[in-house]
Structures are given as C-alpha cells and as structure tokens.
Queue: 2 jobs
Job 1
Amino acid sequence: MKPGLALAILAALVLAPTPSAKGAGADRPRVALSVSPAQLTVTAPASRRISLRNDGAERVVVDVGRRTMGRRTATKAWFRVLPARLFLRPGGRAALTLRVGLTREAEPGNHQVLVLLTTRSLRGSHVPLHLRLGVRVNVRMPGQIVRHLVLGGLRIHQRRGGRSMFVSVANRGNVTVQLHDHVTTSLYRRGERVARLRPLAPRALLPGARALLVLRYRGRVRGPVTVLVRVRLGPGVRAVERRYRIRL
C-alpha cells in the first residue's frame, strides 16, 4: 500500500491535539476524516451518495478526484462526482453525489474506479499535511462484450545490427484490449523455436484503434522462418495468434 493512500477502507489519521486546544476539542484528533460507504457497486445508469464526516479539530478542505483501476478506460464522459471540493468544519458533515451515465464512450462490462478524497488544512491551520482516502466503486455497464482483435500483415525493415519486424493490429471489438505484457512472439525454423522476441507495443488498444507491434531480431538465423505472434485477451478467452512465413 502506498504511503498516505487507503484503498476501499474507512480510514482516519490521528494526530496529537494542539497544546492550545481546550475543552471538548482537546480530546479530538487534529485531523480525522471518515467516509461511508467505503466501497460500492452500481449498475449504470445510476446515482449514489457518499457521506463524509470531519471528526478532527481542524477545518479542512476535501478535494475530490478519481483514478481508473485495472484496464485503462476514459471515464470523464460517464463517471462524475459532485462537488469537486468540500469545506468541512470540525464535526461537520457533507455528501458527494456519484453519477454514472450511459454513453458511447462507456464500454460494456465491469469498471473499477477509485474516488480519491484528499484533505488539506485551511490557511492558518496548524496541520500542514494531507490525508488521502479512497472509495472503491465497481461500475457495471450493460451491453454485450465483443472482443475482436485482428493481426494484420508483417513487414521487415533491415537496420544496422539486426532486423525489425512490424505487425499491424486492430481492435474491432467494443472493449479496450490490454497489450502490455499480453503479447508473446517466437521465431521458428523447421518447426523448432530458435528465438523469443520481445515486442514493443502500446499498453492498451481502445475500440476502433490501430497500432503496430515492433519485433526486433539481432540473431544469426537466416533463410525461411516462421514468426508466431500471440495475444492473450484474458482469462477464459481464446488468445489471438497468427503465423507469418518470412525470409531473413
């Protein structure tokens, strides 16, 4: 867990009270924020409320952000949290409104989004530090998931010290395809693998997007060979692969 970041838990940071604190305020921690619920599941379209309470003795500002977890998808068009900033007095309460809509940019399936709540003290406060909490939101987007990745042709470019091979790839489905660490390539000659190639590929491919896989080979094998390119699409989904017969 990264320092200062609590994921999907109800958290509070407790500091010693200020020497000048008096009365009931002396028993309060200087900074303490609670949020409820700490995690939730919504099926779009929907709206939910997230409750916040300042249990500390300091006035704080709460900045609201978000972070996509797992697959990289753009959430700006369909995932909103209002307001983007809150001011909380000691003992004060407030609520955020979470809104999930249905748009063309929203891919069907499950999306993991983390709502980030970062506190900072108001000007003149005795606490010059930040506290960050996270609310995990599982968003279920209706619709049929279509995974359709197409491997296109291969072309060779000879360069000093070796050869580079370029394979076109297109995402014709309706969900983002992860490519980073999901692509494997091997070089075969007469049915025997003679090399494993490390492909250079974008981290992810959005629906309708195209890209190039770059395969670099600096070995000594020459003549007719077969290049096997394989892309894993996820658990329980058949991988996409294609063989290319080329001459080095």
Note: The chain is about 0% helix and 55% strand.
Job 2
Amino acid sequence: MASHGSELEHQVRELVAQVLGGVLDGSAPAADARPGSTPDTSGDGAERIAIGSDHGGFELKRTLSAQLVDAGWAVEDCGTHSAEACDYPEFAHAVARRVGTGRCTSGIVIDGAGIGSAMVANKIPRVRAAACYDISTARNSREHNRANVLTLGAGLTGPALAWQIVQEWLKTPWGGDRHLRRVALIREIEDQYVRTDA
C-alpha cells in the first residue's frame, strides 16, 4: 500500500513538472532553441523570430536581421524601416504580440537603451522580456527566467557584442528544474491582471 502511494506521488510530481514546464507556462519546452540546434525555416512559425526597433535601433536591427537570416533563421521584421524618428512602444508591441500569440517563438527589440522596449513587451500576456547587456545576462534570462523576448540598447551595445548576445540568448536552453516554480509564479501573477473580457 505504501509503495502504491509513493508511485502515485511520483506520477503526480512528474505531471506537475510537465504542467509547470509547458502548459501552465503557455509554451512547449520544445519551442526553445537548444545548443547546436538548426533553426526551422519551414515558415510554420516553429523557429520564427520577430525583430523590431525604433529609429535609434534601426541600423543595429538591419545588421542583426541579416546575420540571423545568414545563420538560417526565419526573421519577421516588424519595423521600423527607416532612421526617421518614431516611437519605440509601437515596435516593441508588434514584436511582443507575435511572441505572445505564438506566431513567433522568440523576439528581439532594439531601442536606445533596451529598457523602454522591455517595459512595453512585458505588458503582453505570455511574454517574458529581458534587457540584456552582456553574455551573462543573456544566458541567465533564458536559463533562469525562460525569456522569450530579448531587448537590446543600440546606444549601449555595439554590433559585435550585440550579435554575441543574440547568439548566446538563442542557444541557451531553458533550465527547468528549480526554476519551474518561479516562472510559473510569474505566470500566476500575470493571470491576476489579465482581462478576460477584452
């Protein structure tokens, strides 16, 4: 009888881990890029990256977009399409909306500092945006926080470092395990404020 209880408890724990790791979090674990993985460019959205910027991040966006395409990723450019002055919230919203709805698995937004775009992106349900300035923050945001939108500051990060950050961010897998509960708590807090009548 005791062994049956242990087995049942083990099964329940496995089920909870799966729920916290996937369904409760709103995305399947398989959607995260893994080290050495080859991007799926079939066009079905499986490994599609949304990218956007304001005028301050326009040149860096063009550079990173070309590098991503060269690396085999399917890139959806959400604008802006010139260096003419514009408002970063529009483009951060466009990128985050594509990630939050599942149209794209990841997003990158670039403005002057990366902070404002992160604030906007994090307003969208199912988005976990992180402003990253180095390899360590990029790795941590994916492994610990399961970030699905990366924001960069073109005024603070040069193109060579930005590309290194993007590569590290995309190849770092979600850590799971001890981080499951904390990411699930982020989702629970989000759900308290999401309107269901909108």
Note: Residues 15-46 have pLDDT under 50 and may be disordered.
